[in-house]
Every structure is written in C-alpha cells, then in structure tokens.
Amino acid sequence: MELRLKSEKPIYVQLCEWLSDMIISGTIPEGEQIPSTTEISVEYKVNPATALKGINMLVDKGVIFKKRGLGMFVSVGAVEKLKAERQQDFQQTYVDKMCEEAKKLGISKNEIIAMIERGFENE
Predict the structure, then answer these.
(1) Where residue 1 falls among pLDDT bands split at 50, 70, 90?
(2) N or C: which end of the chain has fewer CB within 10 A?
C-alpha cells in the first residue's frame, strides 16, 4: 500500500480502505488475524494512534473484532458487509451523478449502457 500524505483523505481513512481491500480480496480471510497497529505503524511510518483509528473504523462497522490478548481478527460476514457498503457508495458516488449528468446532456439510458459496455470491452 502507498499512503498519499498529500491526499485530501486522512491517513487513517486510507489505512481503513487498505485493510478493507485486503479483506474483500481474500488476502486476509474471514477469521484470520489482521496486522497489529504496531506492525502497521512501523511498516508505513505512521503514528500507532493513526493506525488504531483506521482499524477502529472497521471495528465500529463490525468487520473486525478483538480477541483479548491475541489481536484483531476479521469477522465472519465481513466481506459481504464491506461489498454491500462499497456498492451503496458506488451507486451514490458514481451512478447517481452519472445519470444526473446524462439527463442534463440529453444522453439516453441506452446510450449510457452502450458507453458502459465499451468501457468493459477496453479492459
């Protein structure tokens, strides 16, 4: 992961997103331990409190839980929770705004679908 120190996103949010990506991709499977705040802070040269703040965002969502004396672990169902949250964010951030702009420009639903299909073909 590369932290963008000059990004508008706070570092703890970037850490939260990085851990979320690792959980969604299966790099850290459900039931497995995540890196400790110390490991994260040393590896990425951030304050341990910053690392903990990013982890706590996932704890608050019920994606990560603490086993006393052992560390933090990925909850069962975490992948589904994270995907559902990201899909909702995707809808609000991209799809709704795209549709709003398309209406302003007079672009039809079929034209948008064709544009999206072309985008998938370019992969």
Answers:
(1) low
(2) C
